[in-house]
Amino acid sequence: MRNAFKTSVIAIAAALGFIQPLMAADTLKATDRPNIVILYADDMGFGDLAIQNPESKVPTPHLDQLAREGMRFTDAHSSSGICTPSRFALLTGIHHWRRFHNIVGALGSPVFKDGDLTMAAMLRDKGYDTACIGKWHLGWNWDAIRKPGTPKGRNSHVDFDWSKPVPGGPLARGFDHYFGDAVINFPPYAWIEDDKLLRAPDSDLTKETLSDPAKEGGWEARPGPALADWDFYAVLPTLTEKAVEYVRARKGNKKPFFLYVPFPSPHAPIIPNDEFDGTSKAGPFGDFVVQTDDACGRILAAIKEIGADENTIVIFSADNGPEKYAYARDEKFRHWSSRPFRGLKRDIYEGGHRVPTIIRWPGVLKPGSVCDSLFSQVDLMATLASLVGYDLPGDAALDSHDFLPFLTGNTDTAPRRSHVHNTNKDHYAIRDGKWLLVDAKTGYVSGASKEWEKRHGYPSGTTSTVELYDMESDPGQKHNVAADHPNIVENLQKLLAKLRADGHSAPRLQENGT
User: Fold this and answer.
1) Using CA atoms in the order 177, 182, 188, 193, what is the torsion angle rounded to 10 degrees?
2) What pLDDT digit, counting tens, does each position of 198-232 carry?
3) 152, 299, 409, 413 — which has fewest CB within 10 A?
4) What's 213's DSSP letter?
5) Which residues pair with 71 in a beta bridge?
6) pTM for this prediction
7) How many CB atoms lie within 10 A of CB 425?
8) For a pLDDT cut of 90, what percent of the chain falls above it?
9) What are the E-state strand segments in 150-251?
10) Higher-pLDDT residue of 153, 470
11) Angstrom distance (rounded) from CA 350 to CA 86
């Protein structure tokens, strides 16, 4: 792979026939550094991105255009098959399974330890304005505003002093600004700006509150404090507008900015606004993907509007694969959200964690290029640290590989060869080169669909203590060849045990013997 590198670190784009000035990353002034925008979808499958699924029933014109203007990654992975762990790993460069496995529950505590270095804190230290607008789902210290004497285990709107700031959220993790509702289907159902609720919840949402059905699937809304006039359908449009406003406010600001936009969509409740009904041929979920694509397009347009598109890295990805409703969608509409892979959200089969990923960097990554090398979201931490000249301490970014030399054409070898897949405790898979070992009887967590397997040509009636797949010849994971390669199974099990026991997998830490 040979790509040109423009604003910061690079140099020659021989394949394109031109030369650009060389400038080392550690010599850059803050104002020379590119803005960084991460657009992070929720429960969006690899096959939901139209440009990489020829059988897609969902148009994604804005993301397709982003891919044509940048680089599309075909072998990119989130750390987990569920949301909180993947978000933690993205922002820290540490695989979630070194710390925890589950999501933060309703009104749950932060998953971070004091002193954890996050991407936002790192970039702020290097002169960036930092903002998170959207779904947080990494915990807040809600007990800090709980009224004394509150009955144990009760979470009613009368149990909290909503006038107080809520500690432990994004502002405690390196972000200068936050706007969102924390989690669309978790309480409190109210807007939070920075560390305070804009309006105090005046009621409690219950299952009975949601009398109208969601457009597809269930509401999945946990009970708890809410505004009586809370409108779930307003969440995505409001977050989109707030992100656009933030970008527009950067016009003329000489400081670079880091904007992290974790969308609440197309996660349940699957509730596309009415104007998007019927815009796909894959039902309401497909329409919700279209609305998410539209939201990305509006933010990208704002970046161009302020004249920052040539100096802004835009990264698009998702936290995990699609929810189990995808089985019915495939049967009814013939749209498989994980195509061409097997598995869904929670699963350690590929569809649970191989996610759509695009990076656009004008003048740096060749437009329309494709990277087939193994890549993980945890790698963004070390890559961006290398870009801005940040010296990562030994207790930070424990699993993050620096892809900057590879992406800029200074090496032909991608730094990552292996990747550990995990959602639940003691349920792991490991990839090494072309081989993928499911170190369990099955890679399913969300559950199998025999009808889906039959329709897609999967063998039936097979049992094994482990599963081994050749991902070059069998990306759909149809043919378990563990019995044919016992030595490979043993070696992968040893590698998995080592990566778990070492406490880190970042090359810089391995080289230093940390």
Assistant:
1) 10
2) 999 999 999 888 888 999 999 999 999 999 999 99
3) 152
4) P
5) 359, 369
6) 0.94
7) 10
8) 89
9) 177-182, 192-193, 196-197, 203-205, 224-226
10) 470
11) 15
* H helices present in 139-178, as ranges: none
pLDDT bucket at 10, cuts 50 / 70 / 90? very low
Tokens representing 397 are: 């970014």
Q: Which residue has the tokens 């002034």?
A: 29
Confidence bin at 503 (pLDDT 50/70/90) = very high
Tokens 């279209």 belong to: 290
CA torsion, points 366, 367, 368, 373, in degrees to nearest 10?
A: 30
196 to 171, 190, 240, 281, 308: CA distances (angstroms) = 11, 10, 20, 41, 31
- Check whether 313 has a pLDDT greater than 50: yes
What was the pLDDT predicted at 513? 58
- Give the integer Cα–Cα distance in Å for 84 and 345: 13
Q: Which tokens sit at 502? A: 């070492």
Closest CA to 398 of 168, 79, 131: 79
pLDDT at 165 over 60: yes
Task: List C-alpha distances in Å: 246 to 130, 214, 299, 454, 475.
Answer: 10, 30, 10, 48, 40
Residue with token string 């933060």: 104
Three-class HEC string of 427-439: CEEEEECCEEEEC
Alpha-carbon distance of 277 to 255, in angstroms, equals 40
Q: How many helices (H) and strands (E) does the chain have?
A: 11, 20
**Helix spans in 306-424 (H):** 326-333, 379-388, 404-407
**What is residue 461's predicted lDDT score, i.e. its pLDDT?**
73
| pLDDT reading at 69 higher than 80 | yes
Burial class (CB in 10 A: 0-12, 13-18, 19+), 200: middle
191 phi and psi, to 5 degrees? -85, 140
C-alpha dihedral over 431, 432, 434, 439, to 10 degrees?
Answer: -40
β-sheet bridge partners, residue 192: 180, 197
> Which of 199-208, 238-247, 457-466 is most confident?
238-247
